[in-house]
Amino acid sequence: MDLSTRLILAGCYILLAPIVIGLLDGFDRKISARMQGRRGPSVLQPFYDLKKLFEKEFLSANKMQLFMIRSYLCFIILSGILFYTGCDLLLVVFALSTSAMFLILASTTTHSPFSSQGTHRELVQIMACEPMELLVAVGFYLATIPKTFSVANIVRNSNYSNIVFLPGFFIGFVFILTIKFRKSPFDISTSHHAHQEVVKGITAEMVGKEYGMVTLAEWYENAILYGMVALFFINKNPLSIIGAIVVILAVWFLEILIDNTSARVKWQLMLKLAWGVTIVAAGMNLFLLEIIRG
Amino acid sequence: MEKLVTALICFPFLWAILPAVIHNSKCRAFFVYLGCAIVMALSVFTAILWYAAGGKTFDFRLPYQEAFGHLFMVGDVLLMFFITYLAYKYKKLIISVLTIVSTVIPTVLELFGPKLADSFTMRFDWLTFIMILIIGVIGSLIGIYAVGYMHGYHIHHHKELTDRRSFFLSMIFVFFGAMFGLVFSANLCGLYFFWEITSVTSFLLIGYTRTEEAINNSFKALWMNLLGGCGLATAISLGYLWFGTVNLYDFLRFEKLNPGDMRCLLPIAMLAFAALTKSAQFPFSGWLLGAMVAPTPSSALLHSATMVKAGVYLLIRITTAMADNYVGNMVALIGGFTFLTASCLAISVSDGKKVLAYSTISNLGLIVACTGCGYEETIWAAVFLVIFHAVSKSMLFQCVGAIENTTGSRDVEDMQGLMSIFPKLALILMIGIAGMFLAPFGMLISKWAALKAFIDTKSVYVSTLMVLFICFGSATTMFYWTKWMSKILGASKREKSRDLTKKNEYISMFFHAFLMVALILGFPWLSEHVLKPLSRNMFGAVEQVISKENIFIMIVLLVGVFVIPLINYFMTKHTKYTPVITYMGGANAGDNMSFISSTGDAKEMHVANFYMEEVMGEKKLFTPAIIISSFVIIVYLIIVIGGAF
């Protein structure tokens, strides 16, 4: 891939990712509301919220937070650029986990009980998800011929959609997406419901533009995660993009459904479930794939 | 060159006499500094000279090789008597059996066994080059640090203990000499002699305080290392009886010529077994954890520049003979298993030194796993890990030691807000931690290469297991380092207080920090000019291990980790904001540190980290880990030994 294509792709990611994910978020709220028998806000509500957050007076318990949150946002965008310009998938995952560290450091600078509790649960969540994220990279490496971690080459060298070889990886990945998106069974580190014990957890001490940046960073991160979902379906044939979009929407709807129909679990159970699913689904798939590709 | 190498090996041994006989504190300190400086200069000079000469593998015999040979043999026997005496004194006679068996058999064979053909006894190549730089530079820095630390240790904190600093400092020099000898030796008899010296020296260092715990732990270290010594002795005996050579490189050659021949594989298996004990892999991890009772410099020495590196060094040496066979699989599995288990265990402890100890074991696990795999990529990763681990772990241990001397505690929980109380110490700690795990730094570059190589491993089940070990281990590693980092950066109410850290301790620590940054920035150069020739030597292939594009991305990430926070820091420095107090559910007393309790007065709030003891505690994981790993080793050894007879 030449440099100009890469630059265009990077630009598209920076501009489009928040718009697309913001819209999806808006529809998410609408659909969730309908499922609960409410009308729900306008689909543009997430953007209004974001605008409002950035316009607020800047209050902070510790100014150190701001530069770490900005670094968090920058690093997430950097990882996204790496992903969408077709770089090394494994390095994208490593970059993502580095960015999460900035969020954690930002949150613990305040010495607040709720944010501290949320932070450690966030750490547990990262620990629950990271093996699966790394395994996804491994899966694509094995499935593609010749073996490669490069996102561009994975797309270019696949005659069939990789899901054919990676069903277990896909199941595992969709499972941890629920944790990554902080949907209600796993909104352990930052509960959206005021009555629960964490009270916004990791973001408890972030207000105004700090919180706005965290929201924006999460949108950018979600764009990468949806991109990984798409990677399971995209192949050499450009028409496969349509299939990938359909699957993304299906996954997105599934997450909303899970969000609205399940009760919250404890972090111990989350860790066991996430690692269990990873080992069983992805591990088995990995083993079989090694035999096929051996 | 022969003379330089001889000097490098002999000088520390001779110099060790000086601190032992000089008891004036100032005078002794001077000689220790001088000795360390000479060792450092000598090792760097030798290394540069060799590098400048083109970096060719260089086989040679020491001047007066015969005399040295006799010296080694006498030394072995003396060590055996010494250990037996100590075992008798402390009523642990069973240990003496190990040393007697492992010394008598090779000695008898050497005296009365078949005469072996003369061949070279020493080899200088790229791996030696890296190792002498690590031992010479990092080791000497620890020596310099030790002078100040031990002063503070006896004067301020442990007045009840007998002051045996002379002994301690002289042992450090003995260690250097033994390590230099070990990495040069091609002759297994010589290697065995130096190997035993490191075992005994570390035993003496661990038992330094002579408390009951220290004595027990030191004997634990001794018997495990002697068990490893038995492995070496077996390899030597096999060399005498079956192959007519005790040259390490002959063993490697035989194995490569007859892959699948268990008789050729058996000595390799024995060497690997010895290396596993030395590098503290499960089930032999206990000794390194027990070594924490010793004063900090000895922990730093054991964990970074010497001891455990000896085991890893030997594994890297024999790695080409372990590619895709039983021994390689055994080593890889043990390494991967140790990597995961030790990093889980590190989550559940809050003692700073213990976290470091577990992380050493875990890191060594990754290195060992890499060597067991035996591909170019894994060796590339393994050597990088060795280098980065030596620097950052030595720095971390020194820093935790200094913190303990200053604040009186080395518990991670007590480091809340260290950044605002002791910024210099905190900064060093942060750099060290970053060096251990952060994205583009040493660890993750190596993890990338290791993961890639493990997927390509031929044995399907080993490959699957290894990939799972690395993925899960990588996640758990993140947990305990981030947790620690966030403690350091947190808010704190404590006032700034006096930093008791000595100047020489700071010199050593800042030099480490500088070295760390230099290594990170210089990693593409290092990869091209040191690691590439090394793998060309070992594998005869010149393949680009990491593509140019990925090196570029890694540099971008690397710059990102430094530059992005820095830019953001300066951009937000003058942002106007309204300070608010944190939300506590109840009433904040106004300073974010205390809350109004039900009785109406302010109580300090304590925020603690997660340790997840019920999920990953020592009680829960340690014993099963030992059982599983012992089982793996026994099964594989039975396969190899059974196949050979």
TrEMBL record, chain A:
GO cellular component, one term: plasma membrane
Principal localisation: membrane
Chain segments annotated as transmembrane: 6-27, 66-84, 90-111, 123-143, 163-181, 216-234, 240-258, 270-292
Annotated localization: Membrane
Record's protein name: NADH-quinone oxidoreductase subunit H
Superkingdom assignment: Bacteria
InterPro entries: ComplexI_Subunit1, NADH_UbQ_OxRdtase_su1/FPO
PANTHER family xrefs: FORMATE HYDROGENLYASE SUBUNIT 4 (PTHR43359), FORMATE HYDROGENLYASE SUBUNIT 4-RELATED (PTHR43359:SF1)
Presence of keyword Metal-binding: no
Keywords: Membrane, Transmembrane, Transmembrane helix
Membrane topology of the entry: Multi-pass membrane protein
Pfam families: NADHdh
From TrEMBL, chain B:
Alphabetical list of Pfam families matching this protein: Proton_antipo_M, Proton_antipo_N
Entry GO terms, CC: endomembrane system; membrane
Domain NADH-Ubiquinone oxidoreductase (complex I) chain 5 N-terminal: 119-152
Membrane topology of the entry: Multi-pass membrane protein
UniProt keyword list: Membrane, Transmembrane, Transmembrane helix
Transmembrane annotation, as ranges: 30-55, 67-87, 93-112, 124-147, 167-184, 191-209, 221-243, 330-349, 361-388, 425-445, 465-485, 506-526, 551-571, 621-644
NADH:quinone oxidoreductase/Mrp antiporter transmembrane domain location: 185-471
Location in or out of the cell: Endomembrane system; Membrane
Location (main, coarse): membrane
Similarity section: Belongs to the CPA3 antiporters (TC 2.A.63) subunit A family.
Protein name: NADH-quinone oxidoreductase subunit L
Originating organism: Pseudobutyrivibrio xylanivorans
